[in-house]
Amino acid sequence: MRLFEENHVYQSWMRPKAREGAIVQGSCYRFTVLTSQLIRMEYAEDGVFEDRATQVAWNREFDVPQFRVIEDETELQIITEHVHLYYTKGPFAPNTLYVDVKGNFSTYYSRYMFNGPERTLKGTARTLDHVDGATELEEGILSKQGYAIIDDSSSFLMTDDRFVEPRRKGIHDIYYFGYGHDYKQALRDFYTLTGPTPMLPRKALGNWWSRYWRYDEKEYKALMRRFKSEDVPFSVSVIDMDWHVTDIPEEYGSGWTGYSWNKNLFPEPKRFLNWLKDEGMMVTLNLHPADGVRAFEDQYVAMAEAMGVEPESGDRIPFDFSDKRFIQAYFEQMHHPHEADGVDFWWIDWQQGSTSKMEGLDPLWMLNHYHAIDIARDGKRPLIFSRYAGPGSHRYPVGFSGDTIISWASLAFQPYFTATATNIGYGWWSHDIGGHHRGKKDDELAARWVAYGVFSPIMRLHSTFSTFNGKEPWRFGIEAEQSMKRFLRLRHELIPYLYTMNYRNHANALPLVLPMYIEHPDDEAAYQVPNQFYFGSELIVSPIVTPMDRKLHVAGTNVWLPKGEWFDFFTGHRYEGDKSIRVFRGLDEQPVFAKAGAIVPLMPHKPHENETGNPSELEVLVFPGASNTFTMYEDDGESRDYETGASLETTFTLDWEARTLRIEMSGDLTLVPANRTLTVLVRGVVGEGDYDAETQTLHIPIGELKQEQTVTLPVDVTQNAHRLDRLYRFLDRAEIAYDLKDRLYQMATTKTRLEAWLFDLHALELDRDLQDALLELMLD
Predict the structure, then answer these.
(1) How do beta strands 459-461 and 207-211 pair?
(2) 615: which of 138, 329, 451, 603 fits an S-S bond (Cβ 3.0–4.6 Å)?
(3) b/e map of 666-680 (b: 16 or more CB within 10 Å)?
(4) What is the mean pLDDT of residues 390-403?
């Protein structure tokens, strides 16, 4: 495909011209009422306005909403169902342009004034490089005050020849979002304006192995074989910069940039890549493209000829993404040959800052945009691995958050950072799980980070170039090792659920990870748990990000549970919602809560396999307490055929009162492996038969899955009948006085009134962690 001559994967998303009925225009101003809550506001002294797509805004072809215009020679008002715009004609200024959001959701600051302060719930940041803990975030489109803006005045224009050109200076082009607390609608309209997030390949949702290390083919294969023998699955192989030649003659500069395999390490690259494919893995290679193409590269002659450079000169071909000819040759000569050998996508690591020959053009955005377009040729899905480059970057998954410092502070910031990125639509962050560099070895920190990583968008282990800094589980103590392995296996078990949320992100503008306030915008408690998040439609996660109490062997975190019943995802322990509590977990546990009636499809773990495709054996984990419907989505996991309907939906309808689970399949049934079997797991219940008391789970084998069937669930709610067993296990492990253990256990077993137990517990004047842990164990 000629990159600038044919339609590309994003072309159909670009409908930049708004409908005439949405436009209110004067000699120097233009307002476009895209929705009753989204208004484009433009000012240009010469009255020339822009109808082409920009780096941010690709589609303005919204249905025209109802609105009124009040206008005279000097003033203009636009009134919709949700907002009221006031404009005194002339240059935009704080005293000439402001917009009010209707509705009684915010006592203060619900008026936007041009160039006024932004008070959003924040968005995300370009990178976490050199950050130890928190960093400042850019603005998002969600706000407790009810409004936000995107200033698109300086973003580049998309031209008819599929390239870019700079905006004229001195103009204003601003998108006003006046959505109040309707955060979900704000996200939907933002995705409509900018384009949706593409579907990720199914394998991308499994575990990624990455390490900055000078592997050779033999060592890398041995490592992958050991992972398999240790029963640790991976689906993506990330090979850092030493895949290519790095020891280069001094005359050429540094070895960070390179495109030629190091044949001393990988004598036959295609053979190596084919072996990884046979092991069930996708492959991405690291790029640092800043130094262009130099004469030692295998493809230098072809690149030089494409660029009109005399090959015999040996002159460096500079990196220049403002040059269409360079971009085309960059892909055709330097990347396509590797892709033909088996490279699936590229890790676009750091490049030449944020400037280019074309003033104002960010080379990072250009790399992301054209890499995604190029890799998606021939029906593939757009997939890159690169840093965030501003609003609209969600179209170019996956995000690389940079070289994370190994510290508890770094871990503590990542859940908030990841969830908050949803406020600018950026749902597929990949972090250096376990930390990249600096810091010190800490088994507990490593295990906790992996447990968080499994419940983050992309699960990628990574570490820097150090003999001692690696994330292989066996490098850590036995307890940490076992925890890491358990959670890495769980990630692959979750793939059917994750892939359904992948589709939800693409089709319904809801990323996998959501801040609590997106689901509960008018509950103040939802804003007070920055590290807690929804993980898809069924689960809430509040990861442990602080060291444990060494005497109790557990660590705590604050959790807010919304109204209703909630169940521990792993044990089935029941919690009554509409309250905040401290919960405690050991190193092999993570605070994950399933809503009443939750339905979570799983792939049962198969030892020593890396399988990630549509499973031949399916498990459906069901929680009691409420009726619910969940539709599992599947397609071929690789191509864009789903765009034309090549997909399968399996709908599970739980009628809790009737104790039945109805199953119906629709769509392309050829996507289901032959003779797929189903097992229903009902957790948080009591029942007879194949029952696991420790996890309060009844196993109901169904056999071959039919297109339509109804399953009876012979279960009842436990009311936490096993709380004394849990208390015993906790006290047995705690390093506290035996007399105190006996007294605490006796109190729990003999007190018949809850109030009496609470008063006695308070009178003991226990350490805070011990008291709170006991309260969690004994109270619903």
Answers:
(1) parallel
(2) 603
(3) ebbeebbeeebbbbb
(4) 97
Nearest to 640 by CA among 209, 10, 6: 10
Backbone angles phi, psi at 333, to 5 degrees: -95, -35
Q: In what order do the strands lie in the sheet with 111-113?
A: 67-71, 75-80, 83-88, 97-101, 111-113
Is the pLDDT score of 741 beyond 70?
yes
Half-sphere exposure of residue 624: CA atoms within 13 angstroms, side-chain side: 25
720 confidence band (pLDDT: 50, 70, 90):
low
Mean pLDDT of 608-625: 95
Q: What is the reported pLDDT for 103? A: 82
CA gap 274, 717 in Å, rounded:
51
> Do 386 and 400 contact (CB within 8 A), yes or no?
yes
- CB 708 within 8 Å of CB 664: yes
> Tokens 């282990």 label which residue?
461
How far apart (Å, rounded) are the C-alpha atoms in residues 592 and 455? 9
In this predicted structure, what is the pLDDT of residue 753? Answer: 79
Give the integer Cα–Cα distance in Å for 773 and 723: 12
Cβ atoms of 141 and 423 within 8 Å: the answer is: yes
Instruction: Give strand pairing partners of 380.
Output: 639
- The single residue listed with the structure tokens 């995000």 is 399
Mean pLDDT of the chain: 95
Q: Tell me the H-state helices in 438-571.
A: 443-454, 478-493, 495-508, 516-519
Integer Cα distance of 196 and 726 in angstroms: 45
Encoded tokens for 289: 């493209």
Provide φ and ψ at 380, rounded to 5°. Answer: -80, 165
Cβ contact 11:3 at 8 Å:
no
d(CA 305, CA 285): 25
| Tally of CB atoms within 10 A around 729 | 14
Give the mean model confidence (pLDDT) for residues 679-685.
97
Q: State the Cα–Cα distance between residues 248 and 160, nearest whole angstrom.
A: 41
Quickly tell me which residue has 């088996």 as its tokens. Answer: 342
Tokens for 123? 């968005």
Asked if 682 and 624 count as a contact pair (C-beta separation under 8 A), the reply is yes
| pLDDT surpasses 60 at 107 | no
The pair phi, psi for residue 120, each rounded to 5°, is -90, 175
Return d(Cα 542, Cα 522) in angstroms, integer. Answer: 20
> Count of CB atoms within 10 A of residue 657's CB?
8
CA distance 123 to 146: 15
Query: Using CA atoms, how far apart are residues 410 and 401, in angstroms rounded to an integer?
Result: 12
List, in order, residues 6 or more apart from 295 with CB less than 8 Å away.
252, 314, 315, 316
